[in-house]
Amino acid sequence: MKKKIVPVLIAIVLICVAVLSLVVPKIVDKYSYSKERADLSEYFGVSGEEAAILLQDEILEDKALVRNGVVYFSQGTVNNYLEDRFYFNTTEMVVKYTLPDEVDTVYLDVQPGVIYASTPDGGVISNTDDCGYPLAFYENETLYLAADLVDNYCKMSYALYQDPYRVQVYTTDDLITSAVISKNTAVRKLGGIKSPILEEVMKSDTVVVLNQMDTWSEVKTQDGVIGYVETKYLTQIEEVTRQETPDYTDPVWPEITHEGKIAMAWHQVMNKDANSTLSAMVTNAGCLNVISPTWIQLSANDGSFASLSSADYVEKAHALGMEVWVLVDDFTYDVDLNEILSVTETRESLANRLVNEVVSVGADGINIDFEHVSSACGPHFAQFLRELSILTHRAGIVLSVDNYAPEGGSAQYNRKEQGIVADYVVIMGYDEHWSGCQEAGSVASIGYVERGIRDTINTGVPASKVINAVPFYTRVWKTSGAEVTSSALDMQSVQDWIAKYNVPVEWDEETCQNYGELVGTDGSTYQVWVEDGQSLQVKFNIMNNYNVAGVSAWKLGYETADIWGLVEAYLNS
Hints:
Elements: H1 2-31, H2 40-44, E1 50-55, E2 58-67, E3 70-74, H3 75-82, E4 87-89, E5 94-99, E6 102-107, E7 116-118, E8 124-127, E9 136-139, E10 142-146, H4 147-151, E11 157-161, E12 166-170, E13 175-181, E14 185-188, E15 197-201, E16 206-211, E17 216-220, E18 226-230, E19 234-241, E20 262-267, H5 278-281, E21 290-293, E22 296-298, E23 305-307, H6 311-319, E24 323-329, H7 337-341, H8 344-360, E25 365-369, H9 378-395, E26 398-404, H10 415-421, E27 424-428, H11 446-458, E28 466-471, E29 473-480, E30 483-490, H12 491-500, E31 505-508, E32 513-519, E33 525-530, H13 533-546, E34 550-554, H14 563-572
Parallel strand pairs: 1-12, 20-21, 20-34, 21-24, 22-24, 24-25, 25-26, 26-27, 27-28, 28-34
Antiparallel strand pairs: 1-2, 2-3, 3-10, 4-5, 5-6, 6-7, 7-8, 9-10, 11-12, 13-16, 13-19, 14-15, 16-17, 17-18, 22-23, 29-30, 29-33, 31-32, 32-33
Helix pairs in contact: 8-9, 11-13, 13-14
């Protein structure tokens, strides 16, 4: 019997051994930790001189460059995430950064390691020592700025790590969840023991916990690797304030502002003789505290301008209790604004001559009304305003800038920067429907006006700097088949037109204007959205709701006498 049992037992043992030899490796494999290592260059998406950028605790799609040990960011990266005041001129190969009292310049083709500090009137303040490497360079149609150059002008800190290159950037001191590693372990690409290893962390290392979960938690290591560790190895978990950025205070641009609300009107002056009409034009407008005569027009691409400025006019305005902000336009003559503002010498000369012209007649401010700022011209326009601001504040005169309502195709005006360097930002809150528009409609419906104010403030312009301009005119629209035409009428003339043709008019809640419509004897349809005291009052109410700096109007002489009582009430509200 025993002899029969022994072979059976041996067979069973052999079968068990065979089974275990198949099963145990699978069990071991299932529960053992993978030692596979991830390719960090592939993980960060970099190669060669490229460096990944970690902003706070996020890996950006943008890449930096590391050249001869120096970190460089593209201008796009700098503008989007760090500091958007750097101005670059590809023709002149210069990088400029404008401060409230100086313009710092790096010349890419000559001593690119030196920062030259000067003023827009040509005065040299100082030069830095040559740092021994390019502070900026232009390659493959991209401007690259050294991290140390950027760091000089904004609140940031950075650290470079290698194998592969990655740059950790901090711009704010924020609240984070910190933890201490309790045992040597691996940071893995994903949660799970089979996920590839990114790097090891040692006992007592500190990590930032980005997403704490039951089994695996997402963390960032001290050298900028983001991955997963087992939650059981996280100890001393606490919220702390991460303080990585140096003390830095943004430069404060001077401001020249009124204590009360602004009540401004543009006085269209077409020739020297028209200057003598001031007193008659403001007979009923005792509440006006600013007058803006249309005196200066850019006349040539070398920055020349025509001027109708008059010291006598300024003296009369002052006697009537009004400041004079001289309007400068770019549309009276056929000029290429981009050509004027893209040349440093021309741009700076223009700014100096404008300030000198205004000061010479005793005026109180400049009102820039450039309406042909293209996308290409946008950066040059912003730089012009920065440089002009230095000069106007030094001269003690106001800088105001006129803008379209911020709807479609006008982002190049850079209202945010205007809100920093200018004293007042004016919204031309009209021309919702304009001459040549192929759709009849309101010049300034209440929705359009409110969006203009709200969106301007949302771009970063303080409400205390916003002046909303209202129209003193109405368009009479004529629709004949597919043809749409219009003509602008002043406030009295549109009332005369309504009375002459007995046009039925009623209040339209959507536009907050009196609306009239008439079918003429020729079969054409005539429509008006009337600007009058009733429509302006609603606009003033909206302006009060947003607590803006004041009102302007286009144009003086188009109003009816009763309007000034409403303006005065607005000023006192």
